[in-house]
Amino acid sequence: MIRSQETLNMLLDSISRFVRERLVPSEEIVAEADQIPAGLLREMKDLGLFGLCLPEEYGGLGLTMEEEVLAAMELGKTSPAFRSAIGSNNGIGSTGIVIDGTPAQKEKYLPRLASGELIGSFCLTEPEAGSDAASLRTTAVRDGDHYVLNGTKRFITNAPEAGLFTVMARTDPAGKGAGAISAFVVEAGTAGLSLGRIDRKMGQKGAHTCDVIFENCRVPAENLIGEKEGVGFKTAMKVLDKGRLHIAAVATGAAERMLADALRYAMERRQFGKAIVEFELIQAMLADSKAEIYASRCMIVDAARRRDAGEKVTAESSCAKMFATEMCGRVADRAVQIFGGAGYMSEYGIERFYRDVRLFRIYEGTTQIQQIVIAREMQRNFES
Ligand code: COS
Asked: Domains of the chain, with CATH numbers?
């Protein structure tokens, strides 16, 4: 749902201009330094980018899902590290509190997440629990008016910068399944919480991940999200339903960017006496990419509208994530191919995108997990 087309156009224009004029020129510096300059982060805060999707009553812009995916497509048109910096505050690092938190939890944390003063992160994955998230082993044992957390979370995006962690842990250590899992908010600096060293990744330089380690970490009972035990896995899944749609939009924006770069190169690069864009085999790669991006946009906007209308979009969100991220991988591959030898060279930038976008098919659920989610929803909704 778009609340006001005029207001949204203004927002999308200002994001698009910021991406073009401030972020794109800094892509190489960020990749080299593995760090977004502090000045740029400040500008992102001033623009309100950390609170795009947080409710207006807590200082955010309160974007609807349809508005959010359109904004995410614009943000996707530059290095994914920039989107990642604001991604967890708008998504997995705050959504648990937004959808299932108590009024007091919202009051306490959302305004600071919306302003970017606090960085949020989402701790689900563990060394032995990746795709099989319900098998997580981190425990949270009640002790008076606290829970004591023990366990290790792995590959946690923005953890090195985070001030607040949404942590899924087992409140019934004897319970094996998803029903024994609860979600907590844990503040950085809590005794017993420590970080591993920053992971060295294939791409997305400037976006950081690391282990988050809990050793007898005492968390006040009031930090149990919704003050309800046993529903943390469902909270995590609902967070991912929304997050997957967002990632689909970011992947689509990245594909648009790579296609634009490939088209520009094909128009300028001359071989056999003419611009290579005149060759039909190049045209086929451009056309296939254009059509797939268009299909992806249509899917994402449809799923977003359904979510805004209150429909459960678990299957649609997974369809969009699977299609958009796989499509983005194909577009990245074709873009490198169109650039030819130059596509393999760092100075042209396209190889960096090729590595950066590889993660889209993995995080917030691999393509294979999306297939499982989609097929299960089909089975669930089957009427003979
Ligand atoms: N919304 C609300 N509830 C949901 C849900 C959703 N989208 N998906 C599952 N649930 C509920 C189920 O209804 C079930 O509840 P009941 O026991 O009351 O019926 C419970 O959660 C457990 O669900 P399920 O049995 O489907 O869990 P599984 O262990 O079989 O696995 C998958 C579910 C594989 C889909 C899940 O583990 C998953 O998404 N894995 C990937 C994790 C991931 O994306 N990690 C990326 C890192 S986070 S950036």
From this structure: 5-115 (1.10.540.10), 120-230 (2.40.110.10), 234-383 (1.20.140.10)
